[in-house]
């Protein structure tokens, strides 16, 4: 296989991993106003991702670095044309990270509530904007002959793009609720399962519409059958996760939620192939895997680096999740609060 095509799928793998892992982080952050009925409950919710959120977030850094090195034309066009949405995502992630670290620095309800709001918006904005960005990448954007984006921010806020954003927003929210139910006990766990039951219905409706629209747009794609198969897998996994949640099968619900995200994001990359950024102005203005990639020498060096380091990263992350696999109980949070005082 040509190395440029290999790296297209490696970039796809990195973004799939990011959306699965940071996706439930976003969902946990968005769940705080709905599940955190007191400070103990809010601390319980935040502590479910306390040991792993920053590790999950590094996936987007690796994905961005891989994109920059393997497809510099794609990276340049994407980050210049989508500058404002990506800047908002960056600022939101910074605000969220700061909030996790500073929330507990003062024993003040006002102080904590302020950072709770930052966690919520720092989770909701990226969850929505990532969907808008990827929907537009797959659908195509106005690129001129020099592969430069000639639209505006409002160009990105088209019906398909907004639907993509709403789909990722609700999907990540549901994914986070499954994770909270899996990792907590008591009232928070019960409320998370109940809320996931209601949110799941909205998510299923939005995801069905978005996937159907994606399949329709990809009718002429070389990997059309793959788009159809992955979309069907995503739909079945999403429905299965909702059923599992209704039967109090938290682990199954969370696993099927992860499968949903994997299949849905993979379907987008299948629909995109062999382009990396299609142009809506002229076929010759589109960026493809071949005309956007780095040299073979660069890709060869990167391939060896990925072969050596990617398994180590995956092993370390797996070990981290194993170490922090236990539930975050309310009793443990209350005990820690007493010791602190």
UniProtKB/TrEMBL annotation:
The lineage of its organism: Bacteria, Bacillati, Actinomycetota, Actinomycetes, Micrococcales. It comes from the Bacteria. GO terms for cellular component: cytochrome complex; plasma membrane. The chain crosses the membrane at residues 6-24, 74-98, 119-140, 160-183, 195-216, 222-243, 255-277, 297-324. It is found in: Cell membrane. Belongs to the cytochrome ubiquinol oxidase subunit 2 family. Keywords: Cell membrane, Electron transport, Heme, Iron, Membrane, Metal-binding, Oxidoreductase, Transmembrane, Transmembrane helix, Transport. This is Cytochrome d ubiquinol oxidase subunit II.
């Amino acid at each position: 296989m040509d190395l440029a095509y290999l790296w297209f799928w490696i970039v796809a793998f990195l973004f799939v991993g990011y959306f699965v892992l940071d996706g439930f982080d976003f969902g946990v952050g968005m769940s705080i106003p709905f599940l955190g009925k007191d400070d103990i409950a809010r601390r319980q919710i935040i502590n479910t991702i306390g040991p792993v959120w920053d590790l999950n977030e590094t996936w987007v850094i690796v994905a961005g670095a891989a994109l920059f090195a393997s497809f510099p034309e794609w990276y340049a066009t994407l980050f210049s044309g989508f500058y404002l949405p990506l800047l908002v995502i960056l600022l939101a992630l910074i605000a969220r990270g700061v909030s996790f670290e500073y929330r507990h620095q003062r024993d003040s309800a006002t102080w904590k509530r302020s950072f709770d709001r930052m966690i919520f918006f720092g989770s909701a904005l990226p969850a929505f904007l990532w969907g808008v960005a990827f929907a537009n990448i797959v659908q195509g954007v106005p690129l001129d002959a020099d592969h430069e984006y000639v639209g505006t921010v409002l160009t990105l806020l088209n019906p398909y793009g907004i639907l993509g954003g709403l789909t990722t927003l609700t999907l990540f929210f549901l994914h986070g609720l499954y994770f909270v139910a899996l990792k907590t006990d008591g009232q928070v766990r019960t409320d998370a399962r109940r809320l996931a039951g209601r949110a799941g219905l909205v998510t299923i409706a939005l995801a069905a519409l978005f996937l159907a629209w994606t399949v329709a747009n990809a009718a002429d794609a070389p990997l059309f059958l793959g788009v159809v198969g992955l979309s069907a897998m995503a739909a079945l996994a999403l429905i299965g996760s909702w059923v599992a949640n209704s039967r109090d099968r938290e682990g199954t619900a969370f696993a099927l939620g992860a499968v949903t995200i994997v299949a849905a994001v993979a379907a987008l990359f299948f629909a995109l192939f062999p382009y990396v950024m299609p142009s809506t102005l002229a076929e010759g203005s589109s960026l493809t895997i071949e005309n956007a990639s780095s040299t073979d020498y660069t890709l060869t060096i990167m391939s060896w680096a990925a072969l050596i380091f990617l398994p180590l990263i995956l092993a370390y992350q797996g070990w981290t999740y194993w170490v922090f696999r236990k539930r975050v109980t309310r009793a443990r949070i209350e005990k820690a609060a007493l010791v602190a005082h």
